[in-house]
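Posting for a labmate who doesn't have an account.
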Amino acid sequence: MSQKALSRAKKRHPDILIRVAIPYHPALVRLELPEGFDSFYFPEGQENVPRRAAIPRLNRTLINESAFLIA
């Protein structure tokens, strides 16, 4: 639902980036970029986080680094 809303917004504001945040290193998990998204986002240092803490750490990072977050 949020991706559809962002896609509509991107038509009006082409500078918007629609990124998929991933908690695990891309080399460890095979991923395909979903249609309508521009790229993956894997924060620096995330590869050093234990697997069981990866999602909470990613969530904290997203909140701390974002001016806007649509989830």
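Reply:
Got it, the structure tokens are right above this. The first strand starts at residue 19 and ends at 21.
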